[in-house]
Amino acid sequence: MTQQRSERENRISGLVTRRGLLQGAAAAGAGLFLPRSATGAEPGAALKKTSLRFNWTAKGEFTPLYVARELGFFKEQGVEVELLEGKSGTQAVQVVGTGNDAFGFVPSIQVIQGINQGIPLRVAGTFGKVTGMCWASWPDVPLDGPKSLEGRKVSLSSASTFFQVWPAFVKKFKIDTAKVETVSADPSARVGLFLSRRLDIMADIFVANDFVVLQNKLPDKKLNLLRLSDLGFDPVGYVLVANRSVVESDPDLVRRVTRATQKGFQAMIDSPKEAAAIMTKLYGERLGAAIIEGQVTRLLTLVNREPKLGMSNESDWQRSLDLLHEAGVIDKKLPLGSYYTNDFLQA
After folding, report:
1. Which of 40, 138, 221, 313 is least surrounded by Cβ atoms within 10 Å, i.e. has the fewest?
2. Domain end: 231, 249, 270, which one?
3. CA–CA distance from 178 to each of 33, 154, 181, 233 (Å)?
């Protein structure tokens, strides 16, 4: 195992210090991957082209997919995957559902909504054990629990994930909404409102995304942080989803993409600094190296590793469906097999 991890770290470091992709590097990684002849492309075989849509523009949370591409894990599996930025989870679900893109990397909430609405999707891997929804507040604004919102000015954008489950949250934790001054600011404006102290609490952000950006803008202050998962109120996070017709007509393609994605996540887990460096090489000018490193560090706490990397498990999915049903995000709970399969993961 130590030798395998060393090989992987050397491989990632090689990409960061040299231009271009590493070609033909040795397979490695915590027992996830079989020899190429068993699971990937035969030497000289043509690569099968496909596309994967994100729910947003490039950010640190997408690092494992870019690592899989840059280190050649997709190519090892005989596929060439075009990674495409998106505009929202809803848009990503729609383009995968119509078949314009074969795959998506999207938060589970939008995927569950889509499947309930009849959009032909199937989750091939659950890579986020929770979404990472969180609150942030100024150092002098305590975050001791749900009641911390009362008597405060709180961001709650109607476009946010937390807004969708807000009614259920209020009911469960008996929040007196008359005591909460909610501000429905555009996501692009809420950071400015917070920095100018016109907001006490940012309640519609994510720990591996917005929180890192916010804390980076206030390096001399340690913001308070409360994760909704600590309250038992956070559904499963990012999932790898495929168009159902692709799952049925080309299961081998789904298997290859899923296993390369697993390998990208394992590479990030084994060597997070090197993985962040890969992402920084690609998007550092746009996002900032410190932001990417912070997002990758936070992402590590969200990755679903049990009972194995990327496996969808009944208890987490049932908990998520219960939460979304109670919140009115979905009007019914379908059988779990309607949402996901574990058939394509590496054993």
Report:
1. 221
2. 231
3. 55, 12, 8, 22
